[in-house]
From TrEMBL:
Gene3D superfamilies: 2.60.120.1440, 3.55.50.30. Residues 4-55 form the FecR protein domain. InterPro entries: FecR, FecR_C, Ferrdict_sens_TM. One of its GO terms (molecular function) is sigma factor antagonist activity. Residues 97-165 form the Protein FecR C-terminal domain. This is FecR family protein. Coiled coil: none annotated. PANTHER family: PERIPLASMIC SIGNAL SENSOR AND SIGMA FACTOR ACTIVATOR FECR-RELATED, PROTEIN FECR.
Length: 169
């Protein structure tokens, strides 16, 4: 039994005994598989199955079985949906890929702050329709910021762990 807050990728060998992952009030039952689980504060639970099979037991008694390339998205109240997923987008992080896929500015900011351990301040207004797509492997923060800002017409300044992004528009 593993209790999880946050995100983790599991590769579990097939054994006689079940392997359980508990995230919040949801249990994921595993027997020989690889999958990603993410549940952060005030977000839905995401379970993305790469290989094998898992069964998700919700607190309300619902049970959902996932097959490879399926992802379960479960809201706090127990409402859920199954979808496909982009493997690089969901589990690229474990191989040091920083992936943005039509990400809103708030998502880019949050991911950069968590990935690099920095604080980002913004000067100017960011268009609510602004999105960014890009993939970086083992890249320095300055190169990622350069890519984001050059394509968006913004500038950045780095002062230790404090980043300022300025949108002159």
């Amino acid at each position: 039994m593993v209790r999880l807050k946050g995100e983790a990728f599991f590769e579990v060998k097939k054994e006689q005994r079940p392997f359980l992952v508990e995230s919040g009030s949801t249990k994921i039952r595993v027997l020989g598989t690889s999958f990603n689980v993410r549940q952060k504060a005030d977000e839905p639970l995401y379970v993305a199955l790469v290989t094998g099979k898992v069964r998700v037991d919700a607190v309300n008694g619902d049970q959902v079985t996932l097959n490879p390339d399926e992802m379960l998205v479960m809201e706090k109240g127990g409402k859920f949906s199954k979808t496909g997923f982009d493997t690089m987008d969901v589990i690229g992080w474990k191989d040091n890929y920083l992936v943005f896929k039509s990400a809103k500015f708030s998502e880019v900011r949050e991911k950069l702050e968590l990935w690099y351990g920095v604080q980002i301040d913004v000067k100017g207004r960011i268009d609510p329709k602004w999105t960014y797509s890009g993939v970086y492997k083992d890249e320095m923060l300055e190169n990622v910021l350069r890519g984001i800002c050059v394509t968006s017409g913004m500038t950045y300044q780095i002062d230790k762990k404090q980043i300022t992004i300025t949108n002159p528009k």
